[in-house]
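Note to self: the last two entries modelled the partners one at a time, which told us nothing about the interface. This time every component goes in together.
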Amino acid sequence: MLASLVLHLLGLVLLPFLLPGVINRVKAWWGGRRGAPLLQPLWDTRRLLGKQPVYSEVTTAVFRLAPLVVVATTLVASLLAPLVPGAGILPFANDFVAFAYVVGLGRMFLMLAALDTGSPFEGMGAAREATFAVFAEPALFLVLGTLALGSGHGNFAELMLPHGWQAFLVSPLCATALFLLLLIESARLPVDDPTTHLELTMIHEVMILDHSGVDLAMMQYGAGLKLTLYAGMLAALVNPFPAHNQPLLSALVSLALMLATAVAIGFVESLVARLRMRLIPQFAFVIAALGVVALLLATTQPELG
Amino acid sequence: MPPPPYLVASSLTPLSHGAFVHALRERLDAGARALTYFGAPLADGVIELTALLQDDQGLAVLRGHATGDAGLPALTVQFPQLHIFEREIHEQTGLPMPGHPWLKPVRSPVAPMGAYPFFQMAGKEVHEVAVGPIHAGVIEPGHFRFMCLGEQVHHLEIQLGFQHRGIEALVLQRPLAHAPALVETIAGDTSIGHTWAFCRALEAMAGVTVPDEVEIVRAIALELERVAMHLTGLSGIATDIGFLQGGTTWGRLRTTIINLSMQLCGSRFGRGWLRPGGVRFGIDAETARRIPDVLAQFQRDMRTVSALFETSLSVAGRLHEVGTVTAETARELGLVGMVARASSLDLDQRVALPGRAYTRLPMPHAKQLTGDVWARAGLRIDEIGRSVVWLQQALAVPGLDAPPLQAIGPLPPDTLAIGVCEGWRGETIHALQTDANGNLRHFKAQDPSLRNWFGLAVALRGNDISDFPICNKSFDLSYCGSDL
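The predicted structure of the combined assembly is written out below.
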């Protein structure tokens, strides 16, 4: 338990910086460049922490509160999600539902802060975030719900563990769906482009345009942590080593899988152009469709067995 | 023999304003295109009007006089291609233009902008997004106002003029020898296109004829500029849609091309290469032999990355049917250059008015049919290929070491000279007018951007606001070239 807690804390400190660093490095390689140091996002954060935030005169307390809420909710969510395989730090029945809505609370404050600036760009970004979240949420529940139904357990600790032959069908489908969902939730290509400077095309980046200094650092840490959580879920799902038998091996494999996820994101970002904005809901529908297929497979399993 | 890409006319007899409008309408009705149309104030409140027209016979000019009291009936409603010219004449000379639907200033100073009545859309869910004139990237200043319903743009109003430097007036104030350096800065990315048009006008006026080989060196400079700028645009489009290979590789390939310009004239942007009376740098036989190898390697890499771009489903899905300009709209609005060719118009002055360089080595006309962002990107890939093949042929022409510059003698009195050059963006037009003593009295420079900006506004109608960046990049217009 203690080891798991220590690993968890290490993951919270390092992975939100390391995973984006890995993605950037992979993209640099594809582009024929050497790329920035792997921990560059960490050094950027340190630099931002030394800067005083600047606040627009029209913003209110909501704008200042939002970065705190975003980080706080994501940290709470990290206590529920299986960052280290096996249990979250605070497992309870149906904790995955709480996970979804704690993350949702952070999203709400992110959007409120964007609207608080009064900028038409940020308002557009918030509207897009809200719209796409509407499509992404059912997809998430279809995936996690399918896993819960298939495993007969309602918390992260149990539902992610491979079980029986149906894992061969259900797990890959759910893993694919989770990976695509990760692309939406952590604002990566082909849904969003974290490197663009074009405000009119941004989703996530445009909502944090007015944040600076410590606030911006918190927003970026929150985003990095969210990416880490989704990568952690994906890793827990496909990790073949059960945590209760071989905890250390399982944790190492999960770490490797999370890094592999980052590499896969780097590949996607290097090889695929961005989707047209109006196609993103369809992208979310594809994820939901994968979830439905997985659900059908999971529910027909007992008869076949 | 095709008609020349310049026109000289001495002692034109001006038509009265009624006869001028009548003649202009008649010529346009008969299918002529207006290349440029400008006004210059004379003494006693008389405005001198000059319209340059083009039809199958080549270039022709109409000259008229109008006065502020009578004004000049606007022809924009009947011929929308004239709208920007009539707005510009109204702004520069104050000539009333009764019947013009939209006399918005073309380059008004920033101060009155707050009071300017922008188009407005009413409705509870309608919203406006204002972008610029200060942008997030290192680009030129321009103000864009989107009238949107949700993500869909119903109209875009573009406000330019933030870069107005009064360059036409500067050219007249300074000695003629300073003019080419000024002309090169009208639009920094079209140094060659502008300078060649200026050289053509001035040489035609002074009666100087440069050797064919000098014309070919100029065309080599122009095609290098075209290839470099098309690569910049393609790299920009690829970056804007997050297509990494295109963004990085086209950007790298551009360096190869601008370094060739550097090698040939000492400037990566072709500054100081072309001058009235010739070129300051020729191409010696040894260099002319070496460059085709560089170009061959360039072609190989270019084909690879272009194939990746053109066969990628995600790229095709992103660019097809976005920012479409139909051929009819392009013709009606008088769009020019690569934008017009991407909308299937036959409009390339290298073909229509080839001059000696493109008569000796013809440039095949590139064209696309669909008029969307995909077509404009495809056209640029196509034109790069054609230009590189052309460059290889041109470098094989013997005797490209240029002779020294020929002197430009005193200019003839009361003469109008106009030069036309198909720059990478489209037709660049320079007009010079001398007074009774043979001094320059009026100078008009026209970048193709001036006419194409409104095309961008129309192209965006009904598109998503998130598609604006790729539409903008695919038009690739110049702010300073339009602002002068």
